[in-house]
Structures are given as structure tokens and as C-alpha cells.
Amino acid sequence: MNTNLKVIIRKLLLFLALLVVVDYLAGSILKYFYFKHDPLIGASTAYVANYADQKLLVIGPSHALHHYISKQLADSTHLSCYNAGANGNYLLYSYAMLKCVLKRYTPKMIILDIRAEEFDVNPQGYDHLSVLLPYYDQHPEIRSIIVQRSRFENIKLLSKTYPFNSQLLSILNRNIYKNKNEFKADSLSGFIPLKDTIKTKFTGEYYKDVRTDPNYIHIYKEFLDDCLKRRIKLYVFISPILPEMHSQTSTIKIALKIANDTHVPFFDFSNDYRFKKNIYFFDNEHMNINGAKLFTSMVIEKIKQVK
User: Residues 181, 294, 296, 256: what is their CA dihedral angle, to the nearest 10 degrees?
Assistant: First the structure.
């Protein structure tokens, strides 16, 4: 090997070593400041993953976040309650939150809210896992879920800065605008009410069936199985939407059959005529506080019937 080639290889190895060191140091700094100040309870990922200890949890997408009033549920069931719903959330995220919770304790009751099109092929269900990247090191129990985000996720996660690439604004916000109420459950216990009322509703075919993703169905089964193994009282709900549905979606049919096969109570309110009124909705999919009060009372009624 000639001298020039040796010099080039030596410099390349030195550069790679320096790159690894810089990545490690930068990643460690970003991680420190990301977790130094947890977000407010309203941004519930950190709270649910690390602190939640309530006996009743509501888990699901933005439907869960805006449709289930924690205090109303707590008063009726006499169980401490936290609404762990999250905007932009899909079933993979819901299952990750469940696994974080079960690593620490066993709730007595869980309400799982799913969309009427939850099992449809949808890349966003995987993309949204980016919010869990900072928890990859802390929570080994959800690594198998996080790596489903992309084909090369395992390789990307060798980098210590990668989990925080999309969190820079969040890190700045947490550390510049600190809040005295962090780590404290807010008075609404996760539930976020919507106040406005929709003016016009969508009148076409709201959910058009597409191919189902077998992995989403598998994750749904896993969610149910994990709860049953821990003897958690589990209830699956599909929230009301404002537009009328002309037929049951593939998700509803599949989710109902799996729930029936495993003896998990399943309630589909997606096409309930009692909610097809503008006064109950903020937009076509999300109920306002009026709708949430009515729906939560019906959820309580269904739970009591099962008991």
C-alpha cells in the first residue's frame, strides 16, 4: 500500500471517529435539554410515558382527546382518570403508550378509541412515530414499535442526534418558556375541550374504503391481548362523526369481530343518529364541549351496562 493511500485512509478514519464523537456529544446535549423540562400535561406523551398512574386511562387519537371528559368519567367510575389521547395519533402510537404504562403499573380500566378507518393503509400512522424517537433509549419496551417507522430506522437510530432532529423548536420552547405547572396533572386531566360550533358539514362519502394494513390489525390484536393478560377492563369505542356514513367501513367490521372473539366490549357510535347535528361538533370529526358531555355520558352508560 503506497504512502498516499495510507494517509487518505488514516484521515478518513479520523474524520469518522470525529463525526461519531460530535454526534454523541450533540445528541447528549439535545437529550439533556429535551428531558430537562417536560412539556405541559396537555402535550401528554412525556406525561403518559413517564408519570401517569391513574386507574382509568383513555387512549386514542384526537377523537379521544376531545370527546372523553376525564372528570365526568372519574366521578362516575370512582376511579382516577387521565385522557391520554393525542392529536395526530394513530394506533401504533396508542400501543406504544400502552406499553410504557404497563411497564410501570396496571390500570384497572382502559378506554381505547379508534377511528372508523383506523386499519386503512395510511403512511401517517408510521410517520407520526417521530414523536417517540426521543424515548427510544429510555423505553426499550417500545423500540419494536418505533423501528416500524421506516425500513432503515434501526440504522438511523445509531445516531444520537437523529431522535431530536425534528424536536429543535420543542427543545427551545421547553427551555426558554418554562412553566411552573410542569409535572402536575392539570384540572382537565388531559381532556381538551373544543368550544366553537361547525357551520356546514361534509355531505359526500366521508370514508372511502381502501386496502387495509395487516400490521395495524396485528397491533390492534396485540393491544387487546396485552390488556386481557393483565386483567384490565378494556372497552373499545368508535366516536361519533358528523357526516352520515352510508355503510360500515372495513375497520369497523374487522375490529368488531376481533373484539367479539376476545370478549372485549365494542361500541360503534360513528353513525349514531343522535349526534348528526351541528350543535355537537367543532368540525366534521371532532365534537365540541356540548357533544363531548353527551357522548361521555353515553360512554358511562355503556360501561355500566357491561358491569
Answer: -140
Which CATH number does 37-306 carry?
3.40.50.1110
Apex 231 CA angle, 218 and 75, nearest 5: 105
Answer whether 209's CB lies under 8 Å from 297's CB: no
Nearest to 266 by CA among 281, 252, 280: 252
Whose CA is closest to 192, among 292, 73, 300?
Answer: 292
How far from chain centre, in Å, is Cα 12? Answer: 43
> Cell 376476545 identifies what position?
262
pLDDT above 50: residue 166: yes
pLDDT of 146 higher than 90: yes
> Cell 361538533 appears where?
281
pLDDT per position as a tens digit, 56-109: 999 999 999 999 999 999 999 999 999 999 988 899 999 999 999 999 999 999
Helix axes 70-77, 289-306, angle to 10 degrees: 30
HSE, CB side, 13 Å, CA atoms: give it for residue 239: 33
> Over the stretch 201-237, which tens digit does the pLDDT of each residue have?
777 778 877 899 999 999 999 999 999 999 999 999 9
Cβ–Cβ contacts within 10 Å for residue 134, how many? 22
